[in-house]
Amino acid sequence: MVCVTVRREGVRAGAANIPRPMASSAVSAGSEALTYTRDRSKRRALIGSIITGTTIEWYDFYLYGSLFTVMQPHFFPTSNALSGWLLGLAAYATGFIIRPVGAVYFGRMGDVAGRKSAFFATLLLMGGATTAIGLLPGYDRVGVVAPALLVLMRLLQGFALGGEYGGAVIYVAENVPDGERGYYTSYVQITATLGLFVSMVVVLAVRNYLGIADFAAWGWRLPFVFSLFLVGVAGWVRAQLGESPLWERLRLEKRLAREPLVEAARNWKKLALALFAATAGQGVIWYTAQFFSVQFMTKLIGVPGPKATLIAAVALLCGMPFFVVFGALSDVIGRKRLMVVGNLLAAIGFFPIYRAMQIVSSPLNEVAMTALVFVQVLLVTMTYGPIAAFLVELFPARSRYVSLSIPYHLGNGIFGGLTGYLASSIAVSANNKFMGLAFPCTVALLTAVLGALFLPETARTRIWAEVRRGTGSGTGPYSTREPTGPQLRAPSGVHPVSPEA
């Protein structure tokens, strides 16, 4: 491997006999051998391992969203059903507000100690908090301690999720070649919707098996406790994974950031750009389409809860393949175009879509209602499918985990996570069920405008160029540059031969 690194014309001229320091050669041989997973079957197995754990974490996090109307009498008893609903939404929102804090903590851990260690820790913390919710005593037994404990568990869930997403996306991105990053990371993008879908299916199955009365009395606890088994399986799967080869290469070459938070702070303009021109709009679209739509059906236009859940579940199932479609398409036409168009369509489309939902609700036309929710999910896939690859490409590997996680969880945790509560509160306060849509539409429009004006196109960025010898301290990423010399290069990724300037 060492002698290969002096390839080109110099090899034929006898340059292979030039002596080299042994220590430098050993480090180069070890680090240069680290590259993305070239075997496609192994790549698929690795991605399958990642998305299994990430789906379970999203299942855990969204389970409360699927059940809080049933749980509300046990933790927030009130004579006013509307007030109890808003209290439940507020408790749900606490899990989102804390996510940026988890992003900072676990993001730093992932950049300093490794990607695997961070997202393994988040899995265990999320599973423990979710299982504990299923075992909490109710208000009738311990009074105000019950809702306090529930909020604490939601905070722990949000804290854990703040570190999970970034780790999963980066781990996949750093194990696949340049040029296919949008396609492969889009499978991670499916997991959020898949986790929500699984939570809905589990809730429907348990409710139908136990009956409405038993489910409302105690059966709602079972989906939470079931998480203990799921986390055990996911934990075992993740324990078999190795470290990200790109991060490991930086470690061997002693080029890891000593303080990634400081490096991220120096890139504050990029953090702000990623938030306001990408993740904020994507976040409100996601939670309007996949969460607020269910609340709108059940609380504002009178669709029965089980039917609304089934309608949403079918729409999610039909929409999930489009995450991969738009992720792969972004490798061809770019990330920016899809994200900007998706935000713009949502900004101008939500009002007519929700007016149509009201029209088909009385009498309920289930097929038409499902189609309207599906259109919203399609907008989610257009903005969310490419955004993982975009964020990975926007930030350097040395501080990528924390830099990616902060704008993502501010956009999805604050802007997106508060969408359900804010939209519902605005609708109730204004006595107009459509007025709440002003919030997501405004944010999506602002994101579309800022994205069109200021977002860079990152699809041709080569993140592996950052760890080539001779490229400095790894402050990239570097844009794609076509070969100019007689040497041969593979079409993407890092290679055992380090190109000379």
3D structure, described in words:
By secondary structure, the protein is mostly helical. It is built from 22 helices and 2 strands. α16 packs parallel to α18. The N terminus and C terminus are likely disordered.
Structure summarized in a few sentences:
The chain is mostly helical.
Key descriptive features of the protein:
mainly alpha; disordered C terminus; 22 helices; 2 strands; 501 residues
Element pattern in H and E: HHHHHHHHHHHHHHHHHHHHHHEE
Query: Globular, elongated, flat, extended or rod-shaped: what is the shape?
Result: globular
Question: What strand line-up does the widest sheet have?
Answer: 1-2
The tally of beta strands, per DSSP, is 2
Give start-end ranges of low-pLDDT stretches. Answer: 1-32, 469-476, 478-501
Gyration radius over CA: 24 Å
Rounded to the nearest angstrom, the distance between the terminal CA atoms is 20 Å
Structural class by sheet pairing and helices:
mainly alpha
Task: Give the helices and strands, then pairings.
Blueprint: H1 9-12, H2 22-32, H3 40-75, H4 81-97, H5 99-112, H6 115-133, H7 139-142, H8 145-173, H9 181-210, H10 212-219, H11 221-239, H12 245-252, H13 260-266, H14 268-300, H15 305-319, H16 321-333, H17 335-359, H18 366-384, H19 387-394, H20 400-416, H21 419-430, H22 438-454, E1 461-462, E2 478-479
Antiparallel strand pairs: 1-2
